[in-house]
Amino acid sequence: DAGVTQSPTHLIKTRGQHVTLRCSPISGHKSVSWYQQVLGQGPQFIFQYYEKEERGRGNFPDRFSARQFPNYSSELNVNALLLGDSALYLCASSLVRGGNTEAFFGQGTRLTVV
Amino acid sequence: AQTVTQSQPEMSVQEAETVTLSCTYDTSENNYYLFWYKQPPSRQMILVIRQEAYKQQNATENRFSVNFQKAAKSFSLKISDSQLGDTAMYFCAFTETSGSRLTFGEGTQLTVNP
User: Fold this and answer.
1) Cβ <8 Å between B101 and A56
2) What is the CB neighbour count within 10 angstroms for residue B47?
3) Looking at beta carbons, which residues of chain B come within 8 Å of A23?
4) Tens of pLDDT along chain B (114 residues)?
5) Which residues of A touch B93 (CB under 8 A)?
6) CB contact under 8 A, A42 and B4
7) Are the beta carbons of A56 and A45 closer than 8 angstroms?
8) How far is B98 from chain A (nearest CA, A)?
9) Burial of residue B21 (number of CB atoms within 10 Å: 0-12, 13-18, 19+)
């Protein structure tokens, strides 16, 4: 079975541009979460979507948005990119919400803003 | 707000020896889950072990075990018979029972030397 897949794997953007990152969860998983991992730090929670609705949001500006589609795949959008948005963006999927369900992570999208 | 602290940025151990990674956390919740994740250079976050706060018995998974001290809010990971493949960044993480987000520590880079 395929794991969590993210695309693209690497991306270089210029300040002020917009970027869209994509995530396909494990088949049957209905919950998708996004994390930002700056080099040398632990991942920071950005969003959680469950059954196509936003169920949690971290401390990120409104330039960050996301959505979940009927097939449970998800997109993370970042507008007006800043140098500080350079990071590894991780997507995690789980069967349902709740701490008693394991979150499976993709290999991430490495975003570099120049 | 929940916080997770890992006070050891780097650790090293000889192959076949035992090493313990430390983690403390702060929360006002009574029911929650704690995790140790491993992130090798491939970047994919892999779940190592999970502990449910309402269970007093420490979790074990083969060579990996935890020492969960709820009153002290401490959650350390012991790796026995260390292997070269254990070389990775290790993250301690917390989530409340509803599980809307994982809160990660800063990570500990573990190097297993031959």
Assistant:
1) yes
2) 15
3) none
4) 789 999 999 999 999 999 999 999 999 988 899 999 999 988 889 999 999 999 889 999 999 999 999 999 999 999 999 999 999 999 999 998 776 789 999 999 999 999
5) 42
6) yes
7) yes
8) 4
9) buried
Q: Please, are residues A3 and A26 in contact by the beta-carbon 8 Å criterion?
A: yes
Distance CA B22, CA A3 (A): 30
Distance CA A21, CA A33 (A): 13
Please answer yes or no on whether B104 and A43 come within 8 Å at the CB atom. yes
Amino acid in the structure at residue B110 = L
Q: How many CB atoms lie within 10 A of CB B11?
A: 16
How far is Cα B11 from Cα A8, in angstroms, rounded to an integer?
Answer: 33
- Alpha-carbon distance B108 to B106, whole Å? 7
For residue A11, CA distances in Å to A17, A20, A63, A103 come to 12, 10, 18, 25
CB B25 within 8 A of CB B17: no
- The Cα-based distances of A27 to A30, A44, A104, B96 in angstroms read 9, 25, 12, 25
Query: pLDDT tens for residues A5-38?
Result: 999 999 999 999 999 999 999 999 999 999 999 9
Chain A residue nearest residue B92, CA to CA = A42
A vs B: CB pairs below 8 A: 65
